[in-house]
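re: that complex we talked abt at group meeting.

here r the seqs, copy pasted straight from the sheet so there may be weird spacing, ignore it
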Amino acid sequence: QVQLQESGPGLVKPSQTLSLTCTVSGASISSPDHYWNWIRQHPGKGLECIGYIYANGTTYYSPSLKSRVMISLDTSNNKFSLKLNSVTAADTAFYYCARGSYSRSWTGDYYYYGMDVWGQGTTATVSS
Amino acid sequence: DIVLTQSPLSLPVTPGEPASISCRSSQSLLHSSGHNFLEWYVQKPGQSPQLLIYLASNRASGVPDRFSGSGSGTDFTLKISGVAAEDVGLYYCMQTLQTWTFGQGTKVEIK
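got the structure back, here u go
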């Protein structure tokens, strides 16, 4: 059974860096069939994609966060991480990691089959 | 960015009755491959989101067959053939054609 678990400090000071880790069990983050996501949900609001990473290290970031975000893989420990720098109160949210499935056609097109496993999520509060 | 607009935002339902949620996109989600890059998720109270439908009409593994997705281009629909009490929650559509975005969510609740 595949499980994802987010971890990280619940409280971060403004202008500092939010660092979160997602530990994956029951699957390998090196799988060529999957990509690994970070999604957040502001209090009482909807869902927002932060970005994702493929097993080969290729990343995609939301344009609105691209200048401040980095997602990376730790294959030795089967984890992937999120770093969001220069945080403000607007970054206070519930953060989820999730696994997605995809394939590529011979023409190079990506086909996405949804995010089928999600972590329980973790709260990150930005406050001095 | 592609904007997804869901309707209704609130949907009171009677158990056993059908329910339908609309998701309209500001741009076509039809890829040159013929697939529509649209997914549906449900977030039950106190839980993480769960995948229901991918590529507009494909049910994810383990999803009851009372859930179905349809549509193409800019208009999509999630249907529940007979709502069960356990189906209450927030339903989101999401597009993966361009900068990924979610709809604002539809709250399904029991009357």
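couple things i noticed - Chain A has no helices and eleven strands. The mean pLDDT of chain A is 96.
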